[in-house]
Amino acid sequence: MGWHLKKCSAQLVLHLIIGICLVLVHIFQSCVLNYYIISQAKDSLKAYFWFAADFVILFLFIGSLAIAHRYLHYKRRDRAGQFPYSPKRLIPHYPRSKLGILPLSYVSWVVYATVVVAKVVVIFTSEIPNTLQPTDRWGPQLLKIAIASSGAVFMLLVEGHHDAEPTSARNTYIRLLCGSTAYEIMDSVQFLSLLILSDSHIVMTFTLENTVLALSAVNFILPTLTLYKLSLTDFGLETGSPFVMLVYKLLHLFLINGSYMVIRIKLWVSLGGDISLFLMKNILGICTTLYSLYPNLVQLYETCRPPPPQKPDDLELDDVQSEALRRPAADGEPAPL
C-alpha cells in the first residue's frame, strides 16, 4: 500500500512538472509571437485579441493534462466500470474506437496549431520578415525559436498523457514518435526562414511565397493525426489502425518531404539559393516512408479482406454434425459427442 501511494505521489509530481513546463513554453511562444504582431499594428486593438485565444489554449492544455492524470490514476486502481470522463459517456451512440482514449489531447493540439498557424500567416504576410535584422534583439533568430517551440509543446503534451515505464518498448516508441514530430516542426521553421529576406537573400514570387507558407502550415496541423493515432491505441497499449497510419505517411510523403524537397531544389537550381541540410533529411524521409509503406498496406489489406468462403465439403460435414447433435439418441445408441 505504501509503495502504491509513493508511486502515485511520484506520478503526480511528474505531471505537475510537465504541466508547469508546458504552460511556461506556451506563454513564452505566445508573448513573442504576439509582440511581433503588435509591433506591426501598434494603433490597432485587434492585435491584442490574440491573448484571448492564448488563454483558451492554456485552459485546454490544463484541462487535457488534468483529465489524463485522472484517467491514469483510474487505470492504475483497476476500477471496474467506465471512466467518468470517457467520450463514450459524453456521446453514447458513438463508438469509443472512433474517438480514442483522451480525445482532448488531439482537440487541444488542433486548436493550438490553428492559432499558431494564424499568427505565422499574419507575421509572414506582413512587412515584418523584410524588416528583421540578425543583429536586432527581436530579430529573425528569436522568431524562429518561438515558432520551433511548438515541438516542445507537442512533446510535453504527449508526455502528460501516458505512464509508460522508462525502460519499456512502449516508452521508446512514444519517445521516437515525439522526437520525429519535433524534428519535422524544426524542418518547417527552417522552411519558413526562406521568407525572411535577411536569412535567405532570395526574392521569391508571390505564388512561391504562399506555397511555402501553406506547406509550412500543414506541418503544424499534421501532428493532430499523430495524437489521434496515439489516442486510438491508448498511447501505445493497443494495436493502431493501419488506415490512420497509412493516411499520415502518405500526407507526410507528398505534402512535407516531397514538396519541401522539390521547392528547395528549385530555389537552389533556379535562384541560386543556399542549399539547406534539411534537403538531405527530406530525401531520407522519402526513402524511409516508401520503405515502411509496404507493411502498412499489407496490414490494411488483411484488415479489409473478407473471410475466405467455406468449402462445400466443410459445409456438408457441418450440416451432418448439426443434424446428429439435434437428433435424440435411441435406446442403446451412444449420444453424439
TrEMBL record:
Alphabetically sorted, this entry's keywords are: Membrane, Transmembrane, Transmembrane helix
Which PROSITE patterns did the record assign? PROKAR_LIPOPROTEIN (PS51257)
- Matches recorded under InterPro entries: CECR6, CECR6/TMEM121
Please indicate which superkingdom the organism of origin belongs to.
Eukaryota
Segments passing through the bilayer: 12-36, 48-68, 106-126, 138-158, 202-222, 242-263
* Family that this chain belongs to: Belongs to the TMEM121 family.
Put simply, this protein is called Uncharacterized protein
Source organism per entry reads Amphibalanus amphitrite
